[in-house]
Amino acid sequence: MNEKEKRIRNTLKTREGRSNALNALKGLLGNTNAKKEFKMSKFECSKYHSSCKAMCCGIVPIPRVVGQKKQHAIQRPVREEFKGQATSKTDPSIMETFILPRTDDNYCPFLKKDLSCAIYEDRPDICKKFGDESHPLMCCPMQHKDGEPRKGEIEDGQKS
Ligand code: SF4
Ligand code: SF4
């Protein structure tokens, strides 16, 4: 386990760490108002998969109800599973429960071998919105939100 993995593991082990991580992610979602525009863009992942290896599909909070419903779609063993709660972005009086599954390679358990998502229709909002550039942490390293390659980035092993 390298230093980065140790830091992730230690953060997720404390209730405060999980709560902070989840609320930061919910904050990112709350700041997102470009969903409609983003859905209409030419943003595509498959053409970059040979380079990016779906690096954005790491330890992602999955709503507990989705995790329970989609057990059959798990692609790699979950070694540890942390639970956390965060306030609902639509109703702050509601606490939503998430699971943070950790796997041996720190990829999301629902990522398939071909780097597609095994729960695509039910994937979390943060997955749907990743790449919409509503926050620096929501930027894809490979392409802009309109699908244009980032300057100097590699597409299908070639310089763009
Ligand atoms: S959002 Fe970016 S990093 Fe994630 S799979 Fe798509 S191209 Fe790759
Ligand atoms: S739920 Fe799907 S899109 Fe989201 S991180 Fe997991 S594999 Fe990637």
Keywords:
160 residues, disordered C terminus, three-stranded antiparallel sheet, globular, 5 strands, binds iron/sulfur cluster, alpha+beta
List the helices and strands and how they pair.
Elements lengths: L2 H11 L1 H16 L4 H5 L9 H4 L9 E2 H6 L8 E10 L7 E9 L21 H5 L24 E2 L2 E2 L1
Antiparallel strand pairs: 1-3, 2-3, 4-5
Helix pairs in contact: 1-2
The chain binds iron/sulfur cluster (2 copies).
The site of one iron/sulfur cluster (SF4) has 12 residues, from loops.
Number of domains: 1
Shape: globular
Total strand count, please?
5
Overall structural class, as computed from helix and strand content, comes to alpha+beta
What's the order of the H and E elements? HHHHEHEEHEE
Report the helical percentage. 25-40%
Poorly predicted regions = 31-35, 154-160
Report the biggest beta sheet as strand number plus sense, adding barrel if it closes.
Answer: 3 strands, antiparallel
Treating each run of at least 4 consecutive H or I residues as one helix, how many helices? 6
Largest beta sheet: what is the strand line-up? 1-3-2
Estimate what percentage of residues fall within beta strands.
15-25%
Ligand names:
iron/sulfur cluster
What does the radius of gyration come to?
16 Å
Q: Quick check: average pLDDT?
A: 82
First-residue to last-residue Cα separation: 34 Å
